[in-house]
Amino acid sequence: MATLSHVNQETRLVAVLPSTPRGARAARALTVAQLAEQQIPFEDAAQVVAELAANAVTHGRVPGRSFRLALRVTAGPTLRIEVSDTRREFASPAVAPEPWAESGRGLVLVAALATRWGTDHGPVPLKTVWAEMDLGIPSPMSPDRGFHDPVDRGPVAHDAQGLNNRGK
Fold first, then answer.
1. Is-above-0.70 flag for pTM?
2. How far apart are CA 76 and CA 114, in angstroms?
3. Please, are residues 107 and 56 in contact by the beta-carbon 8 Å criterion?
4. Contact status, residue 135 vs residue 79, Cβ threshold 8 Å
5. DSSP string of 58-114, one letter each residue
6. What are the backbone angles phi and psi of residue 79, rounded to the nearest 5°?
7. Rounded CA gap, 92 and 110, in Å?
8. β-bridge partners, 12
9. How big is the chain by its Cα radius of gyration, in Å?
10. 3-state SS assignment for residue 35
11. Sheet containing 2-5, strands listed edge to edge, beginning at the edge strand earlier in sequence
C-alpha cells in the first residue's frame, strides 16, 4: 500500500511492503517513479533505497511483518529516506568489509551517497534506518545525476567524434 501526499509543498511517499526480495525491488521502483514524476534526480536515491530495503528484508525480516518505506522532500531541497523494520536488535555500522567478503558493502555505499544517515529506534520493536540527501549538491560518487532510469535505456552508439548516432 502506497500513499502520496503533497501537503505544505512537501512531497511525501509512504509504502508498506512485504519483507521479501520482491518488496525490496518494489521500494526501489516506487522511489524512481515518485522522484521522476517530481523531476527530482533519483539515481543516487534509488541506490540508497535499494540498499536499505535489501537490509530490511535480509537482516530485519520478521515472519509475517512488512517493512515501511517513507520518502520526504523538504525545503533545502533535502530528500529524507526512511526504511523501518521490526528487528530492532540489528543495527550495523557502515564499516568496510574485508576485500574478499561477498557482502557488507551496503551501508558503506549509503554513507558515500547520502549527506547524512543514521538509525532511530521507535516504540519496541521498531527500527528505522534513514538517509538524507541534499538535492542541490551532486554526490561525489555520481556526478552525472540524471532523471532517467538506466535500466530502461539501452546503450547509445557514438561515432568516433563522440556524437551519438540516434539523431542523424
1. yes
2. 15
3. no
4. yes
5. HTS--TT-EEEEEEEEETTTEEEEEEEES-TT------PPPTT-SS--HHHHHHHH-
6. -100, 125
7. 12
8. 5, 72
9. 17
10. helix
11. 2-5, 11-18, 66-74, 78-85, 127-134, 116-121
pLDDT in tens, 11-43: 689 999 999 999 999 999 999 999 998 888 899
CA distance 76 to 123: 29
Q: Per-residue pLDDT tens for 55-113?
A: 999 887 777 789 999 999 888 789 999 999 987 766 565 566 666 656 667 788 899 99
Judged by phi (left if over 0) then psi (alpha if -120 to 50, else beta), residue 22 lies in alpha
Cα-Cα end-to-end distance for the chain: 45
